[in-house]
Task: structure prediction
Amino acid sequence: MPRFAPVCLSFCSLLLAACNTIPLPGPASNDASTAHDVQKQNLPPLLQATRTGDLAMVRSVLDQGADLHATDERGMTALMMAARDGHKEIVDLLLQRGAYVWKKNARGMTALAFASTRGHADIVNLLIECNANVNVRTLQGDTPLILASLYGHSEVARLLLAHGALVNLREANGITALMIAADGGYTEFVKLLLRHGADVHAATSGGESALYLAREKGFRQIINLLKRAGAVEPKGYRPSREIT
Result:
């Protein structure tokens, strides 16, 4: 097994945390099959409406007295679903009606965590304006910034950092956003983190740092950025690939 297997396993846990097992809806549809599929989920009325992505339907259900804070069996609220699926107008409506931004599902994911993972910067901004905690953690210890780093969502990261996201927080396995961004080859994300004081010396218990990850993947530009920021390779370290 590769030496970096613990971190690879951690990435998998991050992905699982970021994705809810409820199937993602496609574009809003009014056909009978879509309605039938939604009904089969046995979701509370507001969650059924939110899954369709139909703003008018969501407003109608709310006006009829639907429970704004209802959840499914996994603890998902309408706000989480709308934030995850990029339905900004629905998110805005739910927030206006008083939806809880701090609520977590069974995996510890908040609406902000979902929006950060999916790269919905406009929704992230809305949630932050409603005082969402930018450093909230999932059960795996993942913060919105760490989740955004999985896919290199730089605009999301800019918003989070501008509103107090702590750049050097680690998830449960000791991994930072900088390590993930370096491993993913997200150059702009790495630059952003470095400008906000990301620790280039941070490493896992096995000694894997952001520089190690970038070196192993062959990301020359990121390697140079990290070295200019003061990162050093361990004595005697030999990369598994040559950088040409």
Remarks:
- The CA atoms of residues 73 and 132 lie 23 Å apart.
- The radius of gyration is 20 Å.
